[in-house]
Amino acid sequence: MRKVIIIGAGLAGCYLATQLQTTCDVTIITKKSAEDSNSMLAQGGIAASLDPGDTPAEHEADTLVAGAHHNKETAVKQLVTTGPTLIKRLIAAGMPFDRKADGQLDFGLEGAHSHHRILHANGDRTGAALTSFVQSLLHQVHWQTNSEALQLTIQSGVCTGVVVRNTQTGELTTLNGDAVVLATGGLGNLFPLTTNNATITGDGIAMAARAGAKLTDMAYMQFHPTLLTLHGRCYGLITEAIRGSGAILVDENNHRIMANVPKKDLAPRDVVARHLQAWQRQGHDLFLDISAIPNFTDRFPGVTENLDNHHVPFRTTKRIPIQPGAHFMMGGVATDLSAQTSLPHLFAVGEVACNGVHGANRLASNSLLDCLVSAKKAAEKIMTITPTETFKNTALPNSKVDPFLPTMTALQDKAWQYLGVVRTRTGLKTFLRWLDQFDYPSPVPTQLTSTQFAIANLCLCAEKIARAAQAAPKSLGANYIEESVVPDQAG
Ligand SMILES: Cc1cc2nc3c(=O)[nH]c(=O)nc-3n(C[C@H](O)[C@H](O)[C@H](O)COP(=O)(O)OP(=O)(O)OC[C@H]3O[C@@H](n4cnc5c(N)ncnc54)[C@H](O)[C@@H]3O)c2cc1C
């Protein structure tokens, strides 16, 4: 029987496991618990052209516009045509997406979608509902929680396994597999303000890069316009579905910030994030005005609970204090349409991967859909692999070393300054010079603590982002480079 090692327990990893569990020997390893992932945090929903009147072609067109046409068109076609079928299958299996009073599916609207096509579940707790539902379908997999993947093992140019550390006992083991699948999510914790779960530290991207796998589109990091922000700290996402329902972005004087921008408050995320940051830099405070939304607390129970937990008086002020922050990585480990990386037998699904579907900027609610589609395609490909008879294991050095690394806070502050919403060429150079002093490029991961490992991984990802941004001839989508103005010689 084929042995498959899936690293990561978010939607992509778990959905892949549902597809393989009856035909393969599947192990899911995950850093903390099955609940720790960005998938569990997703709020707005999952996009699919299932509403009568909507079509995959319109979904494709919206995805390409949001992605600044940097997308791989075949990947987008695969997403918008395969996605609806997979969603129908999940509904048939019992997935409880929200419905209207008449029993029809209730489609929401989000930024840059031309049609109501966002399915949601349990209001704004879609990610938790969907991921838990998919996890409930798993009955034949081996789970290894509190297990941190540290390093891919390669034999004769083929990925054969992964070195794993039990984070409670420190024990190191090598798990071998006919296919190894990265489903480790993105790298939001590179930035001080992020919507991401604490376990999301670019590990899959860094492990793949160290093993020689190709990365792509690393310049494209999506900054979400609306993170609940109190005293300069982020306390979670305020879903875009709230703007889709009529909320608007204002400052302390009730000035409507997006009034003169095409598509206004529902413009693509990079456009909104830049406008907000520019307004903030002029000394203004930023708010989401929810006064136009009836029954807010019923429609957005997850956001309501979070606001109440942080004592935000939104019921009387009708305002939520927000600012932009790091949300989603469009780039990552380069894959083909079957989730195969450049390293044989190494696959990547979900946010860690870049199959080109998101282009230079992801369309809202396309990433959960990509988790399903990329996992489905990976499963089909993995089923064609011939099982290996034997694996060789080598000794693992585990004596601790103390490499020179920045603190997480120092790294995050520099990344926000130089790799954030607006970048400059001078800033990118300054950042790379600063990074150059640290010992992150090729550490022995088994010799690092978990914190050192995360910092080294995020340093490597940051370097890849800075170099990709530098190499870009001009701004595109989420990689916005403010070019310095050459002074007019003639005066
Ligand atoms: C707050 C929030 C709201 C969002 N809302 C939406 C939305 O409404 N619609 C939408 O389409 N998208 C949304 N997104 C994006 C979407 O949730 C993610 O892109 C998607 O869930 C990623 O799924 P994944 O399975 O690839 O990775 P994740 O769900 O992030 O899972 C990664 C898994 O890998 C594990 N892991 C990481 N490193 C290691 C390691 N070294 N060893 C072992 N395990 C490891 C993690 O602990 C985790 O279990 C949102 C994201 C956030 C953060």
From TrEMBL:
<keyword id="KW-0662">Pyridine nucleotide biosynthesis</keyword>
<dbReference type="InterPro" id="IPR036188">
    <property type="entry name" value="FAD/NAD-bd_sf"/>
</dbReference>
<dbReference type="Pfam" id="PF00890">
    <property type="entry name" value="FAD_binding_2"/>
</dbReference>
<feature type="domain" description="FAD-dependent oxidoreductase 2 FAD-binding">
    <location>
        <begin position="4"/>
        <end position="368"/>
    </location>
</feature>
<protein>
    <recommendedName>
        <fullName>L-aspartate oxidase</fullName>
        <ecNumber>1.4.3.16</ecNumber>
    </recommendedName>
</protein>
<keyword id="KW-0560">Oxidoreductase</keyword>
<dbReference type="GO" id="GO:0033765">
    <property type="term" value="F:steroid dehydrogenase activity, acting on the CH-CH group of donors"/>
</dbReference>
<dbReference type="InterPro" id="IPR005288">
    <property type="entry name" value="NadB"/>
</dbReference>
<keyword id="KW-0285">Flavoprotein</keyword>
<dbReference type="GO" id="GO:0008734">
    <property type="term" value="F:L-aspartate oxidase activity"/>
</dbReference>
<comment type="similarity">
    <text>Belongs to the FAD-dependent oxidoreductase 2 family. NadB subfamily.</text>
</comment>
<comment type="pathway">
    <text>Cofactor biosynthesis; NAD(+) biosynthesis; iminoaspartate from L-aspartate (oxidase route): step 1/1.</text>
</comment>
<dbReference type="InterPro" id="IPR027477">
    <property type="entry name" value="Succ_DH/fumarate_Rdtase_cat_sf"/>
</dbReference>
<dbReference type="GO" id="GO:0034628">
    <property type="term" value="P:'de novo' NAD+ biosynthetic process from L-aspartate"/>
</dbReference>
<dbReference type="InterPro" id="IPR037099">
    <property type="entry name" value="Fum_R/Succ_DH_flav-like_C_sf"/>
</dbReference>
<dbReference type="InterPro" id="IPR003953">
    <property type="entry name" value="FAD-dep_OxRdtase_2_FAD-bd"/>
</dbReference>
<keyword id="KW-0274">FAD</keyword>
